[in-house]
């Protein structure tokens, strides 16, 4: 394997499966390997837990689940699906396992569609002291913590809520870009969407099959300002177009405390080729204010985009295969028909 520091591209991820560094309980889906990431799939059981936790040194996730004060009950996930309720925390073993070679580490993130329906996810490993971070040389299973915040979700085995990016060495960021909020829209179009608290169940396999009006309230421009209600969930868009070159990958910092007491992004990976279509693509932001109402103004910085090098150019760039978000403006998740 190349020792050039950087993010591993699709062909290198495929090679790790052939060597056994990556393994899966079932054959891979045709589109599971992305230009610079691997989608992770749910297995057929979920553990409802009392609270989120990290195992810490010397302990496995399975050991922690044996403690009666942690596991509340087990939920089978049949092919017809199971409902994960809002306000609950679940742990689901993933179908993919790792046996990473020395020098290769990983970082996980929710997929874009997961963040846009306000489902909070984090990958947990054995002996972990931090969420979503897989240390170099890690060997063992992967678990996904899932907590639906606004809408209950119907999940099935094989559903993909999170993705994994692998790195060789410790590549230094090559660029940082500040992203600002767009609170203007032409011709009376919405500037954003606010989630309704009781919108109903979202079936993760039902693409473009949910009624927007049942789940979302449109927001309109008003003096270039928007007052965020505490703990309400918003879908907004950036002023700037985001472009990721073929030899770069990018990640959105989930929160920058110096920019305000709110979170601006849950799902943070941008693959090589994102936004390089002729019209460009804006960043869609999943926003939640913390504790108090917060005023956003048009053009206000809300997040940071960090670019890092790829080890090699991917065989396929984002958008060259089926993509839901290439060329996007303000856009809800793929589960909703165009409003």
What does this structure look like?
The protein is mainly β and 339 residues long. It has 2 domains: 6-168, Deoxyuridine 5'-Triphosphate Nucleotidohydrolase, Chain A (Distorted Sandwich); 175-309, Deoxyuridine triphosphatase (dUTPase) (Deoxyuridine 5'-Triphosphate Nucleotidohydrolase, Chain A). The protein is built from 4 helices and 25 strands. The strands form 5 sheets. Strands 14, 15, 17, 19, 20, 21, 22, 23 and 25 form a 9-stranded antiparallel β-sheet that branches. Strands 2, 4, 5, 7, 9 and 11 form a 6-stranded antiparallel β-sheet that branches. Strands 1, 3, 8, 10 and 13 form a 5-stranded antiparallel β-sheet that branches. The longest helix has 10 residues, at 10-19. The radius of gyration is 20 Å and the shape is globular. The model has no long low-confidence stretch (mean pLDDT 90).
Largest sheet report: 9 strands, antiparallel
Dominant shape:
globular
Number of strands: 25
Strand-pairing-aware structural class: mainly beta
* Poorly predicted residue ranges: none
What is the averaged pLDDT score? Answer: 90
Strand content: 35-45%
**Whole-number tally of structural domains:** 2
N-to-C order of helices and strands: EHEEEHEEEEHEEEEEEEEHEEEEEEEEE
* CATH C-level name of the largest domain: Mainly Beta
- Provide a count of the helices: 4
Report the end-to-end length measured between terminal Cα atoms: 47 Å
Radius of gyration: 20 Å
- Stated plainly, the CATH topology of the largest domain is called Deoxyuridine 5'-Triphosphate Nucleotidohydrolase, Chain A
**Helical content, roughly?**
under 10%
CATH architecture term of the largest domain = Distorted Sandwich
The CATH homology group name of the largest domain: Deoxyuridine triphosphatase (dUTPase)
């Amino acid at each position: 394997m190349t020792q050039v520091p950087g993010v591993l591209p699709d062909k290198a991820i495929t090679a790790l499966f052939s060597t056994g560094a990556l393994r899966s309980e079932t054959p891979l889906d045709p589109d599971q390997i992305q230009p610079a990431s691997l989608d992770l799939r749910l297995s057929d059981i979920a553990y409802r837990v009392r609270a989120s936790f990290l195992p810490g040194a010397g302990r496995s996730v399975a050991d922690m689940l044996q403690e009666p004060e942690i596991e509340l009950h087990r939920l089978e996930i049949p092919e017809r699906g199971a409902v994960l309720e809002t306000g609950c925390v679940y742990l689901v073993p993933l179908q993919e396992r790792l046996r990473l070679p020395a020098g290769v580490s990983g970082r996980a993130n929710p997929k874009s569609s997961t963040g846009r329906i306000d489902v909070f996810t984090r990958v947990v490993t054995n002996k972990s002291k931090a969420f979503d971070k897989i240390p170099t040389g890690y060997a063992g299973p992967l678990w996904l913590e899932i907590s639906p915040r606004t809408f209950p979700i119907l999940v099935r085995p094989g559903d993909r809520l999170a993705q994994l990016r692998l790195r060789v060495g410790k590549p230094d960021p090559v660029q940082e870009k500040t992203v600002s909020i767009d609170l203007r829209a032409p011709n009376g179009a919405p500037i954003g969407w606010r989630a309704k608290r009781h919108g109903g169940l979202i079936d993760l396999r039902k693409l473009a099959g949910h009624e927007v009006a049942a789940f979302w309230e449109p927001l309109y421009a008003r003096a270039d300002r928007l007052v965020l209600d505490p703990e309400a969930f918003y879908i907004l868009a950036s002023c700037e177009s985001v472009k990721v070159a073929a030899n770069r990958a990018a990640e959105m910092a989930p929160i920058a405390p110096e920019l305000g007491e709110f979170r601006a992004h849950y799902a943070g990976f941008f693959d090589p080729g994102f936004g390089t279509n002729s019209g460009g693509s804006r960043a869609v932001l999943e926003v939640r204010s913390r504790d108090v109402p917060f005023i956003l103004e048009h053009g206000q910085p809300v997040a940071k985009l960090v670019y890092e090098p790829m080890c090699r150019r991917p065989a396929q760039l984002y958008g060259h295969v089926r993509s839901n978000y290439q060329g996007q403006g303000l856009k809800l998740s793929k589960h909703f028909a165009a409003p």
